[in-house]
Design goal:
about 450 residues, mainly alpha, Preprotein translocase SecY subunit, two-stranded antiparallel sheet, two-stranded antiparallel ribbon, 20 helices, 4 strands, about 70% helix
């Protein structure tokens, strides 16, 4: 049986969207914020030689630098004030969530509601500032040591350059964080995800142009381009299918008396557990950790024959050792992030307090163990799915030297954010349609 909400979601029309003034304002506001963000990705850092930066970007497009450049929408490759993008904020959020799960004080704050959430968000902002300053200092030192064919990457190195670079990058990250919060509260979708999504999509036209240019020059055959198109469509369809997959655990509520002289009815619903609870966090963190040695070696000009140079070469993007540890890191972060985001004991306790239960399962610790067992099995399948999505496209695309934008991680982010944004879009339309039905019902009641 189709619920009223599902019926409205499936049958909304363009006319209903035209009448939803609040939704149109949200869409226009989100578009305005994204325009501001894109303009900021072209504001360069002071005292930078753009020719040397461009040369470095071209030579290190296959390392962590290339991935960060993809996430930042090209800002890292141009060394702009938005080079760090929103990644320090995401890293700080993960750290705060980890500390919250281990700290009784932060756990108590989390249970205080809105006031506690504001305090935890404040701690996350402090962590973002600290991480952005540290990463900004590292970038400043690396730029001072960077030398190209046209000279040094920094026109006037020194303490003043390091200070201005740190403050500029930190200010840019905080501004992007604020833009993301504005999208979440006054726009459509999750602000942080939308900004990363915009960074990837912004460079898709250039990646497509370069790909077709390679085909025109004969570097890629026409058959390879057709197979690539079919492959990308198949990967997107597979991601959509797996992201929509979930396990529904039946939940029974206590019997309730509906009307006088009528028997009490027992209501039931379900607890949906997604196959991939961790989202795109595991691939992002796994890539950052594994490609860090190669990126440090590129910035500091370490001797390739040294121990660190050998390690960075072995863990270079596309090597067998990199692939092996990449899969292991993805699985680790999938379990790690799922454990942070979902607490079976808390869920079981909430069900017990409301008088609800899972049919055939005793309330309390038995319910928590049952949910944890199902969640573990789903996480195993989800981590395998993430590994396949991130590894197989990279292996195939590395054979024809195509950019990261057609890789599994970028497609995973784009599809995930698209699904979440469309879902929120439909929720606003459904709420608007229900509001219209209520207003018409009240007007009929007046007559």
């Amino acid at each position: 049986m189709v619920s009223p909400i599902e019926h409205l979601a499936k049958n909304f029309s363009l006319s209903s969207f035209k009448k939803a003034e609040d939704l149109k304002k949200r869409l226009l506001f989100t578009l305005f914020i994204l325009i501001v963000y894109r303009l900021g990705t072209y504001i360069p850092l002071p005292n930078i030689n753009p020719a040397v930066v461009t040369e470095f970007t071209r030579n290190h497009a296959g390392g962590l630098f290339g991935i960060l450049d993809m996430f930042s929408g090209g800002a890292m490759g141009r060394m702009t004030v938005f080079s760090l993008n929103i990644m320090p904020y995401i890293s700080a959020s993960i750290i705060v969530q980890l500390v919250t799960s281990m700290s009784p004080h932060l756990t108590a704050l989390k249970k205080e509601g809105e006031a506690g959430r504001r305090k935890i968000n404040q701690y996350t902002r402090y962590g973002t500032v600290a991480l952005a300053l540290a990463q900004g200092y590292g970038i400043a030192v690396g730029l001072e040591r960077l030398v190209g064919h046209t000279g040094s990457a920094v026109l006037d190195p020194g303490l003043l350059f390091r200070f201005t670079t740190m403050t500029s990058l930190t200010g840019g990250t905080l501004f992007i964080m604020w833009l993301g919060e504005q999208i979440s509260s006054r726009g459509i979708g999750n602000g942080s995800s939308i900004i990363i999504y915009a960074g990837i999509v912004a460079n898709l036209p250039a990646a497509l142009f370069n790909t077709f240019a390679m085909g025109k020059q004969g570097a890629i055959s026409v058959m390879a381009l057709v197979l690539l198109l079919v492959f990308v469509v198949a990967v997107i369809a597979f991601i959509v299918f797996m992201e929509k997959a979930n396990r529904r655990i039946p939940i029974q509520y206590p019997k309730r008396q509906t009307m006088a002289n009528m028997p009490a009815q027992q209501q039931g619903t379900h607890l949906p557990l997604k196959l991939n609870n961790a989202g795109v966090i595991p691939p992002i963190f796994a890539s950052s950790i594994l490609l860090l040695p190669a990126t440090i070696a590129g910035f500091t000009n370490i001797d390739p024959e040294s121990v660190f140079g050998t390690i960075s070469r072995l863990f270079n993007h596309g090597t067998p050792l990199y692939m092996l540890f990449y899969v292991a890191a993805i699985m680790f972060f999938a379990f790690f992030y799922t454990a942070i985001m979902f607490n079976p004991e808390e869920t079981a306790e909430n069900l017990k307090k409301s008088g609800s239960y899972i049919p055939g399962i005793r309330p309390g610790s038995t319910t928590a163990d049952y949910i944890e067992t199902i969640l573990t099995r789903l996480t195993v399948l989800g981590s395998i799915y993430l590994s396949c999505i991130c590894i197989l496209p990279e292996v195939i695309l590395s054979q024809i030297s195509l950019p990261f934008y057609f890789g599994g991680t970028s497609l995973l982010i784009v599809v995930n954010v698209s699904i979440d944004t469309v879902g929120q879009f439909q929720s606003y339309l459904v709420a608007h349609q229900y509001e219209g039905l209520f207003k018409r019902g009240k007007m009929k009641g007046m007559f």
